[in-house]
Amino acid sequence: MVSIDTVYQRVLALANKEQRGYITPQEFNLFANQAQMDIFEQYFYDINQFGRIPGNDKLYSDPLDILQDKLEAFHRASTLSGVDNVYGLTSLHYRTIQVLTDYGVEVEKTTYRKAQNALRSPLTAPTKSRPIYYIRNQNIYILPEAIDAADSIDGTLHYYKKPDKANWSSYILSGSELYDSTNSVDFELHPSEETKLVIKILGLAGITLKDPALYQIAGAEDNKNIQQEKQ
């Protein structure tokens, strides 16, 4: 977790340092959630990139292990139960990690078109020992299809959910706007992402404040951090 008030105060301090303008709580919340999703979505691209290069034997510094640690807070699992091997996705579902049958076999992910092609040949047709699945219209379809209820393939869906929406809330006391911790929602990202959140929010604020310098400074800092992470 990253304190949304800490990030908000840092953003205001940096934006107002040279009288660049004031960022309202409403604007900050919009920028904050866009920044959080940008960082969160980047994890998946980085995993794909780092997966193609050798790692190291130090768990605390291996890029893939670091990314997996950051994503672990968003890992969820739900039991699959449906009719004719069709299972509705939970509203929390964002990206699928793995599908396991109730008898311990991992289900191979495919697409609708490839699944239909596989069904046309006995050599490639899925079986209970080699099942496949695809996602369509917010449903998971597991093949082979059940002949009867006893033949249905149930199991567990492992997935990542999206970060909860961050929110900086306040109340007015004696004419002053004060932080309302009860109704605020912190960032769900790993604590190490605090500085990155500040930089990204400042960049977005620079566009709204029509301050190219603020946007450029934030962009330069963001690029520097990306280069350091990928060295």
Summarize the structure.
The protein has helices at residues 4-16, 25-50, 63-71, 112-119, 194-208, 212-230; strands spanning 75-80, 86-88, 93-101, 108-109, 132-136, 139-143, 155-161, 170-173, 176-179.
What does this molecule look like?
The structure is a single chain. This protein has 231 residues and is α+β, with helices and mostly antiparallel strands. It folds into two domains: 4-70 and 164-230, no CATH class; 82-153, no CATH class. Helices cover 39% and strands 19% of the residues. It is built from six helices and nine strands; from the N terminus they run αααββββαβββββαα. The strands form three sheets. Strands 2-6-5-4 form a four-stranded mixed β-sheet, with no helix packed on it. α5 (194-208) packs antiparallel against α6. The two termini are 26 Å apart. The mean pLDDT is 84.
How many strand elements? 9
User: Helices and strands: which structural class?
Assistant: alpha+beta
| Spatial sequence of strands, sheet with the most strands | 2-6-5-4
Order of helices and strands: HHHEEEEHEEEEEHH
- The shape, in one word, is elongated
Average pLDDT, all residues: 84
Q: What kind of sheet is the major sheet?
A: 4 strands, mixed
**Helicity range:** 25-40%
Number of domains: 2
Distance between the termini: 26 Å
Integer-rounded radius of gyration: 23 Å
Strand content: 15-25%
Low-pLDDT segments: none
